[in-house]
């Protein structure tokens, strides 16, 4: 049971991280290259 719990947290963590980094990348790209 403990193992499954850790798996769930690992998947959630990586998903949140990926979402966060794509958001940060989008904001950075917008700042570096603002639409005309």
What does this molecule look like?
This protein has 36 residues and is mainly α. It contains 1 helix and no strands. It has one helix spanning 2-32. The longest helix is centred in the middle third of the chain and has 31 residues, at 2-32. The protein is rod-shaped. The relative contact order is 0.10. The mean pLDDT is 89.
How big a fraction of the residues is strand?
Answer: under 5%
Count of helical stretches: 1
Mean pLDDT: 89
Classify the helix fraction into a percent range: over 70%
- The low-confidence parts are none
- Rg, rounded, reads 16 Å
The topology string of helices and strands comes to: H
Gap between N and C termini, in Å? 54 Å
Structural class: mainly alpha
Q: Tell me about the biggest sheet? A: none
Number of strands: 0
What does the overall shape look like? Answer: rod-shaped
Give the tags.
single chain, mainly alpha, 0% strand
How are the SSEs placed, and which strands pair?
Elements: H1 2-32
């Amino acid at each position: 049971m403990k193992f499954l719990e850790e798996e769930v947290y690992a998947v959630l963590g990586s998903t949140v991280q990926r979402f966060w980094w794509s958001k940060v990348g989008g904001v950075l790209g917008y700042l570096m290259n603002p639409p005309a």
